[in-house]
Amino acid sequence: MTMRPAVATALLLSTLASPVWAAGDAARGQSVFTRCTACHAVTEQNKVGPHLVGIIGRPAGSVPGARYSKALPAAGITWTEADLDAYLAAPAKRVPGTSMTVGLPNEQDRADVIAYLKTLPKP
Ligand code: HEC
């Protein structure tokens, strides 16, 4: 089947006009996660930060033996994708007093890394 250029362009544009909440790409998220591995493991092992196995649905600041700020366990969060997105965008804004200082300013990076975290096996 051949398409006239104008039709092909219109189809391409409609594909690019993605929703505001772009779906996360777990494969890409795995490479974004290399920015987290200095402090976080995806096996049940704590580093500078707590491990992130089963993070969705886990109460914030609840991994035994992890070194948390006072603020995070007191924040009363049970991690949802929306909470993770807000925390990763600006940790100290979502949880004032948190000891995690680095964030992920790019929305697509956040969506991708959250999609990746969702693929990790539950503990
Ligand atoms: C420089 C070290 C460092 C880096 C890099 C880092 N974090 Fe953290 N992260 C921490 C620390 C420390 C905490 C604990 C914060 C607290 O107790 O306030 C934390 C907490 C978290 C939590 C909450 C965990 C829980 O048990 O409630 C999540 C989720 C998280 N980080 C995700 C990420 C992701 C995703 C990245 C990569 C984009 C990342 N972090 C990069 C140090 C880091």
TrEMBL record:
Any one of the GO BP annotations: photosynthesis
MF annotations from Gene Ontology: electron transfer activity; heme binding; metal ion binding
Domain Cytochrome c, residue spans: 24-121
Signal peptide location: 1-22
UniProt keywords, alphabetically: Electron transport, Heme, Iron, Metal-binding, Photosynthesis, Signal, Transport
Entry keyword annotation includes Signal: yes
Annotated Pfam families: Cytochrom_C (PF00034)
The keyword Nucleotidyltransferase appears for this protein: no
Function, in words: Cytochrome c2 is found mainly in purple, non-sulfur, photosynthetic bacteria where it functions as the electron donor to the oxidized bacteriochlorophyll in the photophosphorylation pathway. However, it may also have a role in the respiratory chain and is found in some non-photosynthetic bacteria.
Protein name stated in the entry: Cytochrome c family protein
